[in-house]
Amino acid sequence: MRKRIFTAILGLSVFAALAMAVFSVWFMERDYAAGARDTLLREARVLDRERQKEAPDGYQELARDFAEASGTRVTIVDSGGKVLADSAADPGIMASHEYRREIREAREEGTGYDRRRSATTGEDRLYVAFRGGDGIIVRLSVPLVSAFERMNSAWWILIAALLCILAVSLVIARRLSHSLSEPVLRITRTAHRIAEGHWEQKVAVEGEGEMRELTQSVAVMTEAMNNTLRELNENNARISTVLTAMSSGVVAVSPYLRVIMFNPAAERMLETRIKKDEHIMDVLWDPNLEGILISVMRLHETVRREQRMGERFLRMAIAPMIQGEKTIGAVAVMEDVTELRKLEVMRKEFVANVSHELKTPLTSIKGFAETLRDGALEQPEQAKRFLTIIDEEADRLTRLINDILNLSRMENQQEAPGEPLPEPVHFGRLVEDTAEMLAETARKRGLELTVSVDPGPLLVRVKADDGRQMILNLVDNALKYTPEGGRVAVSVRNAGETLIFSVSDTGIGIAKEHIPRLFERFYRVDKGRSRALGGTGLGLAIVKHIVLAMKGTIDVQSEEGKGTAFTVHIPKVKLN
């Protein structure tokens, strides 16, 4: 015990010697800095008097002359912080000095001081600024020479004394560290191993007296910590697995709105890389979000809202994270409802379009029926014409309802992928049969209809009725929009693993701005002409659904006044 006390006293002696040396250096530095500051302030006042005699365009030359004569760096700054002159740099490229400490103090109090490391020279410098009566500030700076460089002979004496004290201290420290620190080091090494995941490590209980009590306490604590860490790691692994597997995005923030947890789905929905400790406003910019998060944490309420991210819609539920009586943050759970919103818009548009399309023939039927009821039946010729119109409108209404039902059936088939694949059909024969059905229509309209089908088994997977419907819609459209004397060409070509079906005409063509919307429901390029020809506005939408069901693609090329060409690429069925 005596040896330990002696060692402690010796250690305190070494500490006291070092503290005295440090204090001496600090005192000399402070004394030197104070003297240099007073000198620079006097020189700054002299320079300011000289400056006031000069025009502003002479400040740069004045700064250089004064710097050369005084051995200082001179800077002249206006009241806004703009550098007007500098003895060591081009003032035109220097940044504003408005927020430099010495400039700010001089502007407010008349004089200002600062001591900092220069970014230009890499040395500690003293800065003194003085404000003139006209608000212009002159600043002088000099390097601070270390106190060690000014101690001269005392320097070597101080070094020798410190080395002697260090040598003695090393001997004493070695003995003391060996007797006291070895058990502690063993405990530390064991703790590091445990922290690295080696849970089997145990702390050996050794030593005597207080040291034995210490190692025993650490052993108990280590065992408890091992159990706790193991449980935490297991919980973290479970949470991480759940978050990764979730389709909903999750972002948790601290009370300071810094990200503390997130999952991959959140990055996908927000279309950005999220970093831990990043401010939530850098992740998701919304002027209202910060206030909502703060309100959620303060009021302990859950807020549900919808966030628009460009073309995406995110539904959010933001709730506080509470531990005991303390709020430790907030968590936002996000769900991508973009497709849902699109479906809602499509549903509304579909209902509106269907209502409009149904209303037109019904209004016509009702109008002519009322006319017949009011006496037109007594005029045979007029009654016959009205009944013909009613019959045509009823046919049109039937076609519209059938097209709607077909479209609905196809969409339901796409949403039910478990349905068995249709049997392969010979697509070339379907084309030839359908073209034969429309040959008479083409003849009556004065059109040339040609069909070209490559030889060989052109098999595709499609329901025969659907395939026939697709061909019929495309060819019938070509016949409707081609003037008398025109030509409609239908072809089926074998292209390796793909079948190419095309329908081209020499008709009126389609303007470029209409092509992207051709396959939308109820979209018509010329609404009046389409209705007059008996079109429902659903024909090409049905074609698109059939092509998609066949896992094919459809392309349109058209030029106004020259004609249109529809090209369908369909994968063929491989024969065993």
| Rg result | 45 Å
- CATH-defined topology of the largest domain: Heat Shock Protein 90
| Low-confidence segments | 528-534
Taking strands numbered 1, 2, ... along the chain, how are they ordered across the largest sheet?
A: 2-1-5-4-3
In CATH, the architecture of the largest domain is: 2-Layer Sandwich
> What is the number of E strands?
17
Beginning-to-end CA distance, first to last residue:
97 Å
Mean pLDDT: 79
Please bin the fraction of helical residues: 40-55%
Q: CATH superfamily name of the largest domain? A: Histidine kinase-like ATPase, C-terminal domain
Structural class: alpha+beta
How does the major sheet shape up?
A: 5 strands, antiparallel
CATH class category label of the largest domain:
Alpha Beta
Write down the overall geometry.
elongated
Strand share of the residues? 15-25%
- The DSSP helix count reads 15
Number of domains: 5
Domain Histidine kinase: 353-574
Domain HAMP: 178-230
Keywords: ATP-binding, Cell membrane, Kinase, Membrane, Nucleotide-binding, Phosphoprotein, Transferase, Transmembrane, Transmembrane helix, Two-component regulatory system
Subcellular location: Cell membrane; Membrane raft
